[in-house]
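Sequence only, no structure available. Ideas?
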Amino acid sequence: MGMQIGIVGKPNVGKSTFFNAATDAHAEVANYPFTTIDANRGVMYVRRPCPCKDFKVKCTPRNSKCINGTRFVPIEAIDVAGLVPDAHKGRGLGNKFLDDLRQAHAFIHIVDASGSTDEEGKPMGIGSYDPIKDVEFLEKEITYWLNDIIKKSWEIIARRCELEEKKIEKMLAEKLTGLGIKEEHIHNAIRKLNLDPVKPSHWTDEEILKLSDYIRKTSKPMLIAFNKCDIAPENLIAKADEIIKKGYIVVPTSAEAELALTNASKKGLIDYYPGNNDFKIIKSSELTEKQLKALDYIKIHVLQKFGSTGIQKCIEEAVKMLNLIVAYPVEDEAHLSDKEGRILPDAHLIPLGSTAKDLAYRVHTDLGDHFIRAIDARTHRVVGAEHQLKDGDVIRIVTDA
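Reply:
I predicted one. Tokens follow.
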């Protein structure tokens, strides 16, 4: 399974608009809580330099797209319905949505920077609500959710660990494996909190809650999309600094602006690519006065003020948080092609430290099972199963099948 990024937040903050703007999917967008009932899935794209420039070839991508030498590499997004306080106790649409987050490797938390939605997601006057409360509430919800899962059979796990002299981090990792939490996350948390790994039955409820919180931070990194930034009062935009002090990356965003620009671009009315700091009007005669005014507003209040709509930047930063690199598997390293003759057909996001064999398994289980060696198309050197890949590597996988 590839990497997945969860788009999270309370109702009515522009989360579905962000999802639509960031993907080719079209979730229902409406101005009331709980519009999103089921988790929507879509594909977002992260920008990377395409090797076609280095090799001076014209690529024919299959699973991604190349625009002027920039490769847009796919990563899955999950748009999860709005969470409300005490969702972990089943409030609102509760645990179903926490469960939807299980497989997310990182979160983009959409926060209403304009302060125009209360804690339940109900509309209120601009500047009436402190966006920092949303960050704290989501931290708490995910921490308590993890804590509830850990506590369910804690006494049995702790006792078995002590009687059978088993490692507590290994036993907990087995219990939390479906959440994408690894043994190293738990080991680091135990060490950081100075907990006694030999006597887990002595840990207090407060210590287990702290453990849950630390595991959340390290296993599910989160960045903050400070949405509706164009209508946010200056004193609320300044709140971003307080969130940064809590250790978060904060990106000012306008999901509505991005959606408007991408829709206009698809219709051929403007020239715009995700992440650009400007756009060019191509067919002004086909735009109404209202549309021209809207585009002018976006140019002044979003692009010139914040440098971009922020949507693409959120995707790039989330991928950086996850320490992902891009590798390009090919079947013919001389022509950089697959068996259909497509040049540099596929681009895969994989964790930093991945090996040639890991890439083989990522492409297809059979390739991994029958792996013999790989060839680096840049250096023409043969590399083994344990060879660690670098960002931008073009690799041929050789099998015995």
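Residues 4-129+221-318 form a domain with the Rossmann fold fold (CATH 3.40.50.300).
Hope that gets you unstuck.
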